[in-house]
Amino acid sequence: MSSQYGTSLHITITIDPRNEEAFLQALKPAFDAASAEPENTFSQVYRNSDKPGQFKFVENWNASKEWLIEVQLQKGYYKPYADATRPMWIEPLKLEFYDQLPPVFRHVHMQGPTG
User: Fold this and answer.
1) 1: pLDDT strictly greater than 60
2) 22 lies in which domain range?
3) In the chain, how many H helices and how many E strands?
4) At the N or C end, where does the chain have fewer CB atoms within 10 A?
């Protein structure tokens, strides 16, 4: 059952740390395109400070898990990113879907560096 408040997609990807710069360069166009989708309400990329080469992408969507799988993840702008980065992966890609809870359980306070 999908949440009436949207879906949060968490993607974990682990690459050879020597490829980090090339990975981030390949990611940027797909990140920008996905972030610009009208259903996307939040996107952020994180680097695991305890495991070099591991990244987590968190995206919140006003959409169901099914829509994300059947529509969003099929968009053409992901292909150049996947083709460029798949050879860098040292662990399988991990996708997790979470139902968002009501807005009383949501808070975003941007403080500090935003560049």
Assistant:
1) no
2) 7-101
3) 3, 4
4) C
How far is it, in rounded angstroms, from Cα 35 to Cα 88? 23
Tell me the per-residue pLDDT of 22-59, one tens digit each, with 9 for 90 and over.
Answer: 999 999 999 999 999 999 999 999 999 999 999 999 99
CATH number of the domain where residue 24 is located: 3.30.70.100
Q: How far apart are CA 11 and CA 28, in angstroms?
A: 15
* Eight-state DSSP code of residue 56: E
Answer whether residue 27 is part of any domain. Answer: yes
Any domain includes 1: no
Q: How far is CA 37 from each of CA 34, 60, 71, 72, rounded to the nearest angstrom?
A: 5, 11, 12, 9
Measured distance CA(44)–CA(64) in Å, rounded: 19
Radius of gyration of the chain (CA): 15
Q: What are phi and psi of 89, to 5 degrees?
A: -65, 135
Give the C-alpha distances (Å, rounded to integers) separating 36 from 31, 32, 40, 105, 113.
9, 6, 7, 24, 21
Residue type, position 65, single letter:
K
> For residue 32, is it within any domain?
yes
